[in-house]
Amino acid sequence: MSDQLGKILIGAGLSVAAFGCLVLLAGKLTWLRIGRLPGDIHIEREGFSLYFPLTTMILLSALGSLILFFIGKVRR
User: Fold this and answer.
1) What is the pLDDT tens value at each position of the chain, 76 positions in all?
2) Exposed, middle or buried: residue 40 (CB in 10 Å: 0-12, 13-18, 19+)?
């Protein structure tokens, strides 16, 4: 049991580190356009600013689900 937990924690840590690297590089990779996709909501008014990256969140969720799906297939 502890063997599996260790593997899960290592996988989660590597995933978080990979996502962190992607966030750091996102500013330099302008073609990636994370956070500026069509469908992201940005409202700016006097004294008020709202940014809701709806499309970006859906895309990242789908990508994460695919990655976890393939990890589950490999583990079996």
Assistant:
1) 677 888 888 988 998 898 888 778 777 777 767 777 888 898 999 999 999 989 988 988 998 899 889 888 887 7
2) middle
